[in-house]
Amino acid sequence: MNGSAIVASGLRKAYDDKTVLDGIELNVRTGTIFALLGPHGAGKTTTVNVLTTLLTPDAGKVVVAGYDVATQTKAVRAAIGVTGQFASVDDLLTGEENLLMMADLLHLPKAEGKRIAGRLLERFDLVEAAGKLAVSYSGGMRRKLDLAMTLVGDPQIIFLDEPTTGLDPRSRRTMWEIIRELAAEGRTIFLTTRYPEEAGRLADRIAVLDQGRLVAEGTADELKRRIPGSHVRLRFTARHELEAAARVLHESTRDDDELTLRVPGDGGVRSLRALIDRLDAHCLEAEELSVHTPDLDDVFLALTGHANNVAGAR
Prior knowledge:
Layout: E1 4-15, E2 18-29, E3 33-37, H1 44-51, E4 59-64, E5 67-68, H2 73-79, E6 80-83, H3 95-105, H4 110-123, H5 139-151, E7 157-161, H6 169-184, E8 188-193, H7 196-202, E9 205-210, E10 213-218, H8 220-225, E11 231-235, H9 239-248, E12 253-255, E13 260-264, H10 269-281, E14 288-292, H11 296-304
Parallel strand pairs: 3-8, 3-9, 6-7, 7-8
Antiparallel strand pairs: 1-2, 1-4, 4-5, 9-10, 11-13, 11-14, 12-13
Helix pairs in contact: 3-4, 3-5, 5-6
């Protein structure tokens, strides 16, 4: 596929008097990782369900892999893979049996299904657990098995709906590496998450969803630049140095206890050089200089009004 893997325009969905999606516009380029970032209840899962043919929108048009979701449902489903928030593995089957079951559902020849299952078990480091019932798997192992099941059909577009929710930090980072590997193979990844750090580490582009509306879209750096708060922190060794610098840098905020000045700026090299030149012109030198810019947590809070609470997220 060339160009756009997923295109949505004017997407709307409501339940009774509650609007869940309000005019969503999306354009996901082929071979990229696209993150839909938003708090719990923002409409992320509803968006995925519409894009993957599981839910019919009230209005709007969706094209996935070049096929119209409304009129070419079977073609869309053949081109995609979907992993939800909760692993859909069968606890009463072993890891290998889960993969073979998926191969049977896709009507693959038994020998081919066996070969694919073996390759995926190896890829996801599940060979030793292949003969164990899935009920005995850890959360991270279940997520890996669930994603492996999605890959049995070799989809070129993969939807991952909050794939790391509830995982410990080690399992989360393992999943990140797997997602990066899938993208490196040329697959398109549509990822939903409530974790700004996850979106920033993985995605080529991020769309921020809040209460059914897209409130911002861009690269991680582009989103950070939308939020004011960039500044340079200067630390001095003596109070008289601090006082002299404060007289020169009138726009700064002073902290006498820490012997620091906080100087507003855009974090760019040009403005940083200009700041240093101002100090040099008055024979002033800071003991320590550091540049601080808003991170995606700040963006998330500013755009949605929701603090990022990883521990308490549901």
